[in-house]
Amino acid sequence: MGEYKKPLPTPDIETKQYWEGCKRHELLIQRCKDCGTYCFPPMPMCPGCQSMNREWTKVSGRGKIYSWFVVHYATHPDFVDDVPYAVVLVELDEQADLRIPSNMVDCKIEDIKAGMPVEVVFEDVTDEISLPKFRPVR
Amino acid sequence: MDTLKDKAAIAGIGWTKFSKNSGVSVLSLAVEACKKAIDDAGLRVKEIDVIVTHNMSDSVMPQEVATCLGLPNIGYHLEYWAGGPAGCQIIINAAMAVVTGMAHYVVCFRALNGCSGRRLGGKGERPPTTGEAQFLIPYGWTSFVHAFTHCARRHMIEYGTTPQQLGMVAVTQRKHASMNERAMMRTPITIEDYFNSRMIAEPFRLLDICLETDGGCAVVVTSAERARELKHRPVYIMGAAIGGGPNPTPYGMSTFGWLRGSHTELYGKYISPQLYGMAGVTPKNINLAELYDEMSIAVLIQLEDFGFCKKGESGPFIEEGRIEIGKELPVNTHGGFLCEGYLHGLNHIAEAVSQLRGDAGERQVKDAEIALCTSLGMQVGSALILRR
Fold this sequence. Notes:
Chain A is mainly β and about 140 residues long. Chain A has one domain. Chain A contains one helix and eight strands; from the N terminus they run αββββββββ. In chain A, the strands form two sheets. Chain A has a five-stranded antiparallel beta sheet. Chain A has a three-stranded antiparallel beta sheet with strand order 2-1-3. In chain B, the strands form two sheets. A nine-stranded mixed beta sheet of chain B has the order 3-2-4-7-1-8-11-10-9, sandwiched between helices. In chain B, strands 5-6 form a two-stranded antiparallel ribbon. In chain B, α2 (about 60-70) links the parallel β2 (about 50-55) and β3 (about 75-80). In chain B, α5 (about 165-175) crosses α9 (about 295-305). The longest helix of chain B has 16 residues, at about 25-40. Chain B is globular and about 55 Å long. The chains are: A mainly beta (about 140), B alpha/beta (about 400). The interface of A and B includes residues 78 and 102 of A. β4 of chain A pairs antiparallel with β5 of chain B, so a sheet runs across the interface.
């Protein structure tokens, strides 16, 4: 694959399992083993029940568009040539308030609508990193 | 219960020129603003014993300011790490220091070369993709403006708020700024000008977004008794509150992340009961409001969360002209961050003090007795109710 020129995530001790899941094309979300609450971004303690029993659970990858914006003027140099581009905030079906930022694929900017059902696809941008993106559910 | 109510007062205010390129250091802006506020209070510099400030991006430490001002001895000092939510918060901190005997005369300042120096929106650098930003930046979510788009988008989705209603914030505040000699943007605009301003991150146009400013602003806080002996009529701190609901900051100090929680109901909802409770007033008693306006949408949401209209009704409230000087609730009488300058909050407080002293000239709100000031940073904030 050609050299990928966009910024890449910097996985850390809390997030590396998320990115390892993405590499295998699995959307893993951290979940509380005691109360079952999902948490994204991951945290060392469950904000719902204060348990530190955490696990990574594969989720359906389906959700709905909660919100989005369309960048027409980019301040980050790596996105200057991409304008206009849309960033969506997807609320996953598993839990209200469980939201992932992403980009849409196979979808025109003007077709993005609130509540639109979407599903995850993975883009292998480097050997190490695959970015979860979303497409409309057909 | 024994509270802060009416025990502390604002006795002095000072500003440097607000510009895009100050040509001087942040320290220079800080000490100039502090000296002007101290002079305004009618104090001598050596009477100041406490300095508080807050810091995000450009700043200088209070110790450095004490050195440069030549304070013979510095007592309590604080540099609070925060941007938006800190303006009212540092004044509250100063008031608490005064009433607990930790301070006699406090100077609170904020100084930054926010345009020519370090810009919050960045100026071509690549921010680190750590913390929450690892989930944002790879997709092109790279700034505070992007985070706040969701407040506007969700307000539109949930309540039918329109771009026209956002635009009327910019139009109204520009009208106010046209009467303010300190304001960076003073030429009146129409709603057509708003719609013609370029799209930055839809739904935000350029005129929805605050300025970037080089400048300094300072406020002197002391006890109510001492304030009565000074040059100006004191402006008393009637009510104060700091806080918010869940998710006060994103994971890993990535300050422009905002994934969880509501985007249409913010900190104001959580702190209003304490704020109004301490002051013993209701929104009906407020004569003017200086509402944190880093983006137009923040004004709408705060009108609702601080009880001036019902949730979802701020768009029509603004469209009906009710936030203009001379109308029901004048908002951002100096033009706010959209027009006067973005000093991260303290300039809202200084303007409220001018208004309550009756010194606001052409833009004076008639019979202004009680003012609300707010400071907001994502899902946390602070607020003051001031009275003359």
